[in-house]
Amino acid sequence: MSEKLTVAVIGCGRFAQFFVPLFKAHPYVEKVYVCDLIREKAEEYKERFDVEIIDTFEEALANPEINCIGNFTQRHLHGDIVIRALKAGKHLYSAVPMATSVDECQEIVELVKQTGKIYMMGETCYYYPCAMYCREAYKEGKFGTFVHGDSQYFHDIDAIGYGKTPNEAGMPPLFYPTHSTGMILSATDSYVKKVVCLGYKDTVNDGRFGKGTNEWDNEFSNQYVLMELSNGGIARVTEARRIGYKSPSSYISGFYGTDGSYEFSNAQHLLIERISARGDDEVMKVTDVSDYVNSSEMTYNKNDPEFKTKAASHEWQWDVFSPVQQKEIDRLPKEYDGLPNGHMGSHKFLIDDFCKAVYNHKHPIVNAWKAARYTIPGLVAIESAKQGGVPMDVPDCGEGPKD
Question: What pLDDT is stored for residue 161 in this prediction?
Answer without folding.
Answer: 63
